[in-house]
Amino acid sequence: MKVVFVVGAGPAGLYAAQKIARAGHEVVIFNRDIKPGGLAEYGIYPTKEKMKGGLRKQFAKILALPQVSYFGHLPVGEGYALHLNELREFNPAALVFSVGAQGTKELGLPGEHSKGVYSAKDFVFFYNQLPPFSSQDFSTGKRVAIVGMGNVAIDIAHWLLVDDPHHSAEEVTIVARRGPFEAKFDEKEFDYVAAHLDRRAFDEELRRVKEKVTAVGQDITKLSETTFPILAKPAVDAKKPVLKFRFMCSAKEIIPGPSGRIEKLVVTENILVPKGETTAAKATDQTTTLDFDTMIFAIGDAADPKVGLPFSKDSYITNPDVATNEYAAYEVFDPAAGKVVPGTFVVGWARKASEGLVGVARFDAEKGAGHVLEYLERVSEPKTATPAEIARRIERTGRQLVDKAGIDLLGRVEAAEAQKRGLPSFKFADDEKMLAAIAQERTAPVSADD
Ligand SMILES: Cc1cc2nc3c(=O)[nH]c(=O)nc-3n(C[C@H](O)[C@H](O)[C@H](O)COP(=O)(O)OP(=O)(O)OC[C@H]3O[C@@H](n4cnc5c(N)ncnc54)[C@H](O)[C@@H]3O)c2cc1C
Questions:
Q1: What is the pLDDT of residues 244-255, one digit of tens each?
Q2: How far is the CA of 284 from the centre of ligand 1 (A)?
C-alpha cells in the first residue's frame, strides 16, 4: 500500500482517485474549491439538475471510500496556499495533477482589458456561483457578443437568453471565425435557445456569407441537414431577447467608451480556405465595426502556469516520447533536466485543456491512473506524512481546511436550505458562508432524525 496525492477534485481527479484507491492504495486529494466536482459542480449548466445530481452522488461515493482523504479549500501551486515544494515534502509515492484548465487564453487584442469583456470560464463560474467569481462584477449589457461557436458559447447564450435573473440582454450575437457549417455545438444544446433565433436576421446573414461558403464547395441549402436542423422547421417570430449569428470574422480590436466599458468590436472579415477534410479561416484586409457593450470569449482554456509544473504555451509539458511509450502524454517532463519528473502525472483537462465531456475526462483519468498503478509497482514505499500530520501542518498556517466530514455537513445544510426555499438545489456562493455553515452544523445538537 502506497500513498498517492491527487491535486484537483473535478471528475478527472475523483475518478483517478477511485481507481487508485480500489487497487488498494491510499489517496489524499487536495482541492482548490471547498466542494469537490470541479466543472461538474461549477461549469455544467445550472438547470441540468439530473446530470449534476447523478454526478454528485457518484463523487460522494468516491469520497466515502475509507482509503480516500480530502482537503478542500486548498489551492496548490507557486503563490497559492500550498507551494508545490511543500506538497512534495509530505513525500507521496506519486503525484497526480487533475487541476483542470484554469488558465485563460489571452486574446492579445487592443482593449482586451476593457470593462464588460470576460472569459467564458470566469463567466460560467460566476453564474454557477463559484467563489470568488460569484461575488465579482460580471455585469452584462444589452448587446452581448459571444466569441466562439461551441457548446460553451451556447451555454452562455442559454443563460443570457433564458435564465439570467437580471434580463439585461436584448440581443446576443454568436461571433464565429468560420461559417455556419463549422458550428461545433450539439443540436441538443442549441434546442435550449432555438426559440430565440432571429430567423430573418439569420437568413440575411446567410445571404451575406453565401458566396464565401460556396467558394469552398459548401451548399448553403443543405445547412438544415447538418449544423442547423432548425432551418427545416417553419420560421416563427423569435422570442425576446433575440439570438443572432455573425459568421466569418475574427475579433481585432475592442474599443471602450468613456466609462471604460466595451462599446465597439472591430472584426476582421475572413474567407474560408480548404484544410484537409475541413476548412480554415483566412483573414482579409477588410474590417467591420460592430456595436457591443459586452463581450464573452469562449475559445477554450489553457492550463494554469501558477501550479508550478513545467509549462509551455498553454499546457504542462509531458514526455515527448509518444512514439514508444503509450503513457508518455500522462508523464510530466522537465525540459531543463531533459527527463520525466519522477512519479508526477497529469490527467483530464489539466493534460488536455477543454477536451470533451465528463465521460472523456473520466476515461482519460482512469487510463492515467492505470499508468500510475504500474509506476507504484516499480517504486519502494516512501514514508509519506499521514493525513492528520498534513492537516496539522497546513492548519498551523491559519488555513481552514474542509475534510470529508465537512463536505457531508455542508451537503446537509444546503439540502435543508433547498427544501426550505422550495428549490431543486441550493448552494452557498461564498467560502465564508460555507465555512460558517460547516462550523455551525458541527456544533449543532444531534436531532432525532440523525
Ligand atoms: C461551461 C461548461 C459546460 C459543460 N457542460 C458539460 C455537460 O453538460 N456535460 C458534460 O458531460 N460535460 C460538460 N462539460 C465538460 C466537463 O465539465 C469536463 O469534461 C470536466 O469537468 C473536466 O474534468 P477535470 O477534472 O479535468 O477538470 P475540472 O472539472 O476543471 O476540475 C478541476 C479541479 O481542480 C481544482 N483545482 C484547480 N486548480 C487547483 C489548484 N491549483 N490546486 C488544487 N486544486 C485545483 C478545482 O477546484 C477543480 O475541483 C462542460 C464544461 C464547461 C466549461
A1: 999 999 999 999
A2: 36
Q: Are 104 and 305 in contact (CB under 8 A)?
A: no
Strands (E), 218-353: 242-246, 249-256, 262-275, 278-291, 294-297, 311-312, 315-316, 331-334, 339-346
Mutate to test the pocket of ligand 1, among 7, 39, 347 (most ligand atoms within 8 A of CB): 39
Pairing of strands 94-97, 242-246: unpaired
Q: Is the pLDDT of residue 52 over 80?
A: yes
Per-residue pLDDT at 449 exceeds 80: no
Question: Is 349 a pocket residue for ligand 1 (Cβ < 6 Å)?
Answer: yes
* Cα of 307 vs its chain's centroid, Å: 16
Cα three-residue angle 240-251-185, rounded to 5 degrees = 55
User: What are the backbone angles phi and psi of residue 154, rounded to the nearest 5°?
Assistant: -70, -35
Average pLDDT over residues 111-127: 97
Residues contacting 26, CB < 8 A, separation 6+: 1, 2, 3, 4, 67, 68, 69
Ligand 1 touching residue 9 (CB < 6 A): yes
Give me ligand 1 centre to Cα 390, in Å: 25
Q: Whose CA is nearest to atom 48 of ligand 1?
A: 38
CATH of domain 117-297: 3.50.50.60
The cell for 88 is: 512534495
Q: Is the domain 3-102+304-402 a CATH 3.30.465.10 member?
A: no
Domain ranges of the chain: 3-102+304-402, 117-297
Residue 340, Cβ density class (10 Å: 0-12 exposed, 13-18 middle, ≥19 buried): middle
Cell 445544510 locates to: 413
- Write down the pLDDT at residue 271: 97
Instruction: Please indicate, yes or no, whether the overall pTM of this predicted structure exceeds 0.90.
Output: yes
Task: Return the CA Rg of the chain.
Answer: 24
